[in-house]
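Page header: ASSEMBLY MODEL / two components / 506 residues total.
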Amino acid sequence: MQPTSSMNEEFLKKWQMGLQIFRPSIDNTSVHERKKAIKLSADVAMASLRKGTTCWSRALIEKTATEDNFLVRQMLSGIKAEALINKKLPKKIVCHRKIVRRSKKILRRKSKSASEEAAAKAKRLVKRRTQGLRNVVPGGELMSNDVLLLQETLDYIVSLQTQVNVMRSIVDAAEAEIER
Amino acid sequence: MNGAIGGDLLLNCTDMSVLERQRAHLKYFNPSFDSPLAGFFADSSMINGGEMDGFLATAGLNLPMIYGETTVEVDPRMSIPLETTLGTGNFKKRKFDTVTKDCNEKKKMMNREEVTEGEEEEKSKITELNNGSPKSIKKMKIKAKKEENNCSNDSSKVTKELEKTDYIHVRARRGQATDSHSIAERVRREKISERMKFLQDLVPGCDKITGKAGMLDEIINYVQSLQRQIEFLSMKLAVVNPRPDFDMDDIFAKEVVSTPMTVVPSPEMVHSGYSHEMVNSGYSNEMVNSGYVHFNPMQQVETSSDPLSCFNVRHIYSFIMFHHLI
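Prediction written out in full:
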C-alpha cells in the first residue's frame, strides 16, 4: 500500500496549519530552531492524521507534548484533534529481571541437541530484532504482542513515506524556484 | 516472550477469586473437606508451581497428570481441585465440567476487568487448557468448542475485545496436530506471516529476503533511513528560505495531473548539488554517509521536472499559503 495523493494532501494541509501556529517562533530564530519546529509540526500532523486509532500516533503525540506542550496543544486544537492528547496509552511492559533470568536458565538447561540449539539461536535473533524494532517505532515498548507491533510498523512506514514525499516535493519546488 | 509477565498479571488479577472458587469446588465435591486444608492445597500449588508433581505424588494420588505439559502459571491452580476429588466412575466427566466451569468463570472475570490486547494471549491459554487433555481429546474438543462459543457469545456482549480472538473457529487441518495449543500458535504464526508479507511489499528490495530475522533487519533499516530522511529534509526546508517575490502560481500552472509518487530514498539526490547549502549545518555528513545505498535507483519514479506532481491542482491555495509562511 503506497501513500496516495489524497494522503499527501491531507498531511500537507495539517502541516501547514501547524506551521501557521508555529510561525511566531519561526520568524526570528536560528536554523536549528526552525528545523525543530518544522519537524515537530510535521510529526504532529502525521500523527493526527490517524486520529488516535494507532498506538504509535498516540505515543508520538505524547512524546512531543512533553517537550513543547503549549505549542503542540495549540496545533492540535487548530487541527481539531484535541482529544488525542488525553487518550490513554497501554501500560508499558515491565520485565521482572529475576523471572526472566530464571526462565532463561530453565530453557538453557533443556535444549542441548544441535538442531535445537540452532532453532534457539534463530529465535534469539528474531527476538533481538523485534526489540530493535520496538526501539525504532514510537510507542513500540507499549505493544504487547508481535502481531500488533508489525501492524503498527506497517502504518508507521506508510505515514513516514507520505511525510517524506510531501517534504521532498516542497523542497524540490522551492529549490527549482531559487535556481530560476 | 510475555508468558511470564502475563502470568504475573493473571495471578494478581484473579488471585482471590481463584482461591475462593477452589474452596467452593472442594466443598461442593467433598463436603467433609476442611477449608484450611483446601487453602493449604491451593496455596502450596501456587507457591510451588514447578514442584506440583512431587507434591501430589507424596499426597498419594496416582491420577494422571493432565496439564503436565503446559507451562502456564494457571495450571496448578486449576488442576488442584480435580486431583483432590478422588476417583469415581464419572470422574473424568466431572473433571471436564469443573474445568470448563472454571474457565468460563475466569473468562467472565477477565471480561469485567480492563481488557487490553495484551491479555488476549492469556485468555487463549486459559481456554486452551479446556482441550489440553491428551485423553478423550475429541470429545472434550467438541464440548469445549460449544462451551467456548457460549462463552464467546456471552463475552461479546460484555467486551468487544474477545471477538478479535478467532482461534475458536479454527479447525485442525488434516495431517496437523490437533492440540489446541498448536492451533492457537499456528493462528498467531499465520497472522505474523501475513503482516510480514505486507511489509515485504512496502519495503523496497525485500523480495529476495526470506526469514523473519532478515526481514526484520531490513524493516528496521528502512524505518531508520526514512526517519533520517525526514530530519534531513526538514533541515533543508529550514535553510531554504524563499524570497518574498516568488510567484508560485507559475509553478502551479505547469502542474496539471496528479500522480501518486512512490518514495524513493535516493542517495544520488543527496550527493548532487545540495550539499553546499548544508555545509554549515553539519547534517550533510549524516545523510551522505547513511543510506539505503543498495537500493536500486531504477525504481525511482518521480520526474525531475514535476516536483509537485504528488498534489492535485485543487490544493494550490494551500501551497501558496505555505509559501507565505516560510
